[in-house]
C-alpha cells in the first residue's frame, strides 16, 4: 500500500506542476474559453471521486472521497458560472425607448 500511495502522490505533484505551467502559458484572452471547455474533464473528476467515495474500504477513503466529490462539483459549477458570465458579455443589450 505504501508504494501505491507514493506513486499516487508522485502523479499528483507532477500533474500539479505541469498543469500550473500549462495554465501560465495561456494568454488571458483565451483563458476563460479554454477553462469553460474543460468542464467535461471536471465531470470525469466527479465520477472518479464518486467511485473513490463508494469503495468503503476505510472510513478515511469515504471521507476523502466525499471531499473530492465536493471540490470537483465546486469546480464544475464554477466553470459553468464563468461560462455563463462570459456568454452574457456577448448578448445584445435591449434598447428601451
From TrEMBL:
Leader peptide range in chain numbering: none
Spans traversing the lipid bilayer: 35-53, 60-82
Enzyme class, spelled out: translocase
Pfam families from the UniProt entry: PNTB_4TM
GO MF terms held by the record: NADP binding; proton-translocating NAD(P)+ transhydrogenase activity
Entry EC number(s): 7.1.1.1
Catalysed reactions listed for this entry: NAD(+) + NADPH + H(+)(in) = NADH + NADP(+) + H(+)(out)
Membrane topology type: Multi-pass membrane protein
Biological process according to GO: NADPH regeneration
Key words, A-Z: Cell inner membrane, Cell membrane, Membrane, NAD, NADP, Translocase, Transmembrane, Transmembrane helix
Claim: Cell inner membrane is one of the keywords in the record: yes
Main location: membrane
GO CC annotations on file: plasma membrane
Ranges for domain NAD(P) transhydrogenase alpha subunit C-terminal: 9-92
Subcellular location: Cell inner membrane
PANTHER family xref list: NAD(P) TRANSHYDROGENASE, PROTON-TRANSLOCATING NAD(P)(+) TRANSHYDROGENASE
Function: The transhydrogenation between NADH and NADP is coupled to respiration and ATP hydrolysis and functions as a proton pump across the membrane.
Protein name as annotated: proton-translocating NAD(P)(+) transhydrogenase
Taxonomic placement: Bacteria, Bacillati, Cyanobacteriota, Cyanophyceae, Nostocales
Amino acid at each position: 500500500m505504501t508504494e501505491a500511495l507514493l506513486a499516487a502522490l508522485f502523479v499528483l505533484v507532477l500533474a500539479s506542476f505541469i498543469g500550473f505551467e500549462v495554465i501560465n502559458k495561456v494568454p488571458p484572452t483565451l483563458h476563460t474559453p479554454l477553462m469553460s471547455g474543460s468542464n467535461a474533464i471536471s465531470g470525469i473528476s466527479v465520477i472518479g471521486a464518486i467511485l473513490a467515495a463508494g469503495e468503503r474500504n476505510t472510513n478515511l477513503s469515504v471521507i476523502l472521497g466525499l471531499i473530492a466529490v465536493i471540490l470537483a462539483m465546486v469546480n464544475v459549477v464554477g466553470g459553468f458560472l464563468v461560462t455563463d458570465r462570459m456568454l452574457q458579455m456577448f448578448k445584445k443589450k435591449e434598447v428601451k425607448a
